[in-house]
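Reopening this one. Same input as before:
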Amino acid sequence: MRAERLLSARVAVSVQVLNEFANLARRKHSLDWPELTETLTGIRHFVEVHPLSLETHVRGLALAERYRFGIHDAMIAAAALQAGCDTLLSEDFQAGQVIDGRLKVVNPFAH
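Same output, byte for byte:
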């Protein structure tokens, strides 16, 4: 399975990603609180979580302005850059785009 292969590599996520997952899981998939907590605990076990900081916020705002990203997407990109990532897996960003000359966007579900 593609998701298992992706998770077998070093995976870093920001708290923003966890927040967006939680919102989607509650709103669209009707996960109750215990299910959501268990799922998030499982995710955090397999990934390196990076906090949102004032530096992330400032960098994210600059990325939002420069690339015309939405604020939430910009914070995800900023956190990825701060974590030293070279690849950003996302369906929401433009696949193939390179952010700040080093963070390449890849759609993990594209063929």
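So the earlier flakiness isn't reproducible anymore. For the record, The chain has a mean pLDDT of 92.
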